[in-house]
Amino acid sequence: MDTANGVVAGADAITVALSLLLFVVLLMLAATSACGRGPWTVRRQLGTATAVAARTAVLDGPAAYPVIGALHAMDGHQDKPFRRFTELSHQYGPVFSMPMGSMPCVIVNDYPSIKEVLITNGSKFGGRPNFTRYNALFAGDRNNSLALCDWSWLQETRRKIARMYCSPKVCSSNYGLLDSIASDELDVFLESLAAVTVRGSEREVQVKQPLMMASANMFLRFMCTTQFEYGDPKFQNLVRIFDEIFWDINQGYAVDFMPWLRPFYAGHMRKLSNWSTQIRKFMMDAVISKRSSYARAVAEASNGAGDRIRDDDDHGANDGQEPTDFTDALLMSLQKEPRLKMDHVLFELEDFIGGHSAVGNMVMLTLSMVATRPHVAQAIRDEAEQVTGGQRLVRLYDKPDMPYTEATLFETLRIISSPIVPHVATENTTIQGFKISKGTCIIINNYELNTSPVYWNDPEVFDPNRFVHHKPGVKPCIRKPEYFLPFGTGKRTCIGQQLVSGFGFVLLAGILQRYEVMATAQMAIPEARLALPPDTYPLILRPLDGSRI
Ligand code: HEM
Ligand SMILES: *[C@@H]1O[C@H](CO)[C@@H](O)[C@H](O)[C@H]1NC(C)=O
Ligand SMILES: *[C@@H]1O[C@H](CO)[C@@H](O)[C@H](O)[C@H]1NC(C)=O
Ligand SMILES: *[C@@H]1O[C@H](CO)[C@@H](O)[C@H](O)[C@H]1NC(C)=O
Ligand SMILES: *[C@@H]1O[C@H](CO)[C@@H](O)[C@H](O)[C@H]1NC(C)=O
Ligand SMILES: *[C@@H]1O[C@H](CO)[C@@H](O)[C@H](O)[C@H]1NC(C)=O
Predict the structure, then answer these.
(1) At what angle do helices 403-416 and 342-371 cross, to 10 degrees?
(2) What is the pLDDT of residues 225-251, one digit of tens each?
(3) Least C-beta-crowded within 10 Å: which of 54, 62, 100, 278?
(4) Cα separation of 134 and 143, whole Å?
């Protein structure tokens, strides 16, 4: 954890805060395997709200003090906050109160209560916490972000525009585009690996960087109809910055909960807004400024919003043209929805391009899982061989026939327990009958959901087959239990799921068709965090003998 550059000097007065810095690795972090068994593990009524009518009063939880709230309860468990939440839930129950610094927080630990927060009463929990870092990343206003904003008409509008492009139907032309883009970029990526590996021998390879660039190009091709050379320093810088942000956003910082620490984090906040400015500059220079739809949108805006008189046809300002891609659709939406501003649209595009960091990190982690489990890699190869006849690389359209490969991605997300973005109650409401005040931050213990023996057989075992439905006489297919929520669920569910399982699938299968992947001694898989540091461990690659493809 980056403990804010400025914190060190002469800080006697805030000794308490400094020790807190160490253990507030909170939110999106820590901990795989090992899961406590306690009184709550007997609650097996998945999906059925337990009888709660009689409960009223205040939620139980560790004692809270001024300034630090109940953060002291994390003491000694800084690096594994979600495991700690699980422990505390054995003491205080599946829903407990745990103020973090000055922020009222409730930790929700089992499926019935998580379901209430995300689905049945989701409309009352649609906010996000007002962390300073979130604001710093989005020009001072996290409402510019899709994942970190509060719920509003703007979010509804943005999600609608995104859905068509980010969740295309399997038979649509956009899905066909995803398929061909994934395959084209896979070729480029495998060529870049071929340049640093040698037939017949093992090589230590920094896989993450090319993987991030392949993923970035898949997104840029799909959303902006453009792509870049892996050797292009500006492109390398863009991919690096997105990865730095992804890493940062997956950390917890004391200042998130104790805004009075802000002066000590000024340098860090400047760095965040510097990154965001650099991304904007790249996108403007390399993508947006070349668009005729951009020129039209700018002209339209300068004509005066109050005077939007157009030609007397009803085609709007684009002469009835269909948008050519997501970028175009976003720019054209400015004319259809006057309340949308250029900045909204540009941030939305950047947000979605940034999704590539999640995909790259996920594939890197999946390769890491597979590196020490050669039987999983072999099962993926066998599945690929069956579907392609060993004559070609796997492509997106093969996915329905390769459930084990897709399941390997899901099993990685389960074992890693990638966290769910915190929610905030937008009105006074209840969870399991307990009173929750407006403004309370709700932390969802996805780790407990993913690793508890209440929900999984042998939860510590990496077994993709738990997500594959085998039935005699029927083609095996993916089966996800309803309590498996790596992408959240409900009104703020992840919009990128199809891109994740689509591009992730093609990258994973493609690498394993060409290479044996092995671990290096440096390999260290994080706990309850989907992000690896931007500079991370290498993997060992060995080209497969006799590969015909
Ligand atoms: C392995 C990759 C990914 C995982 C595990 C993941 C997971 C999540 C989770 C847990 C949430 C929060 C859901 C909630 O609050 O209930 C979320 C939100 C979101 N994700 Fe993803 N995501 C991934 C990749 C992506 C990609 C590639 C994109 C974009 C193309 C994306 C776009 C979004 C957006 C826009 C939101 C915010 C939705 C909202 O707050 O209304 N995600 N994601
Ligand atoms: C949210 O945080 C910002 C600092 O990042 C602060 O300026 C603003 O007042 C906060 N808003 C609310 C509603 O607390
Ligand atoms: C963000 O959006 C919410 C919902 O529309 C609004 O209540 C809040 O004031 C906005 N925050 C800022 C800083 O504009
Ligand atoms: C970001 O920081 C770098 C290094 O400190 C600096 O060279 C660059 O000018 C800054 N860029 C912006 C847009 O602030
Ligand atoms: C919400 O509940 C708090 C006490 O928990 C109370 O002070 C406040 O007035 C309530 N707000 C609304 C809008 O009912
Ligand atoms: C949703 O919240 C309301 C209070 O805001 C509560 O009365 C109701 O029982 C909750 N519904 C469910 C299904 O949990």
Answers:
(1) 100
(2) 999 999 999 999 999 999 999 999 998
(3) 54
(4) 9
Q: Are 68 and 403 in contact (CB under 8 A)?
A: no
Gap between the terminal Cα atoms of the chain: 42
169-173, 363-367, 534-538: least confidently modelled range? 169-173
**Closest to 513 measured CA to CA, from 541, 487, 492:** 541
d(CA 322, CA 93): 54
Ligand 5 atom having least distance to the Cα of 428: 1
| Closest CA relative to residue 456, chosen from 29, 33, 10, 20 | 33
What pLDDT does 549 receive?
76
CA of 105 to the centre of ligand 6 (A): 19
409 closest CA partner among 345, 462, 340: 462
pLDDT at 168: 87
Structure token pair of residue 288? 């947006």
Q: What is the pTM of this model?
A: 0.89
Note whether 96 and 60 are within 8 A (CB). Answer: yes
Q: Which of 27-36, 80-89, 432-441 has the lowest mean pLDDT?
A: 27-36
Quote the DSSP letter at residue 1. Answer: -
Burial annotation 253-288 (CB, 10 A radius, 16+ → b, else e): bbbbbbeebeebbeebbebbeebbeebbebbeebbb
Question: How many Å apart are CA 142 and CA 150, to the nearest integer?
Answer: 8
Q: How far is the CA of 1 from the centre of ligand 2 (A)?
A: 24
Atom of ligand 1 nearest to the CA of 162: 35
pLDDT band at residue 6, thresholds of 50, 70 and 90?
very low
Residues within a 6 A CB radius of ligand 2: 130, 132, 135
Q: What is the mean pLDDT of residues 378-391?
A: 97
Pocket test for ligand 5, best of 424, 435, 438, 440 (most atoms within 8 A of CB): 438
Cα angle 379, 380, 386; round to 5: 90
Residue nearest to atom 15 of ligand 1 (CA): 421
Please tell me the distance from the alpha carbon of residue 245 to that of residue 354, in angstroms, as a whole number.
Answer: 9
Is the CB of residue 110 below 6 angstroms from any atom belonging to ligand 6? no
Verify whether ligand 6 is closer than 6 Å to residue 115 (CB atom): no
* Residue 275 CA, ligand 4 centroid: distance in Å: 8
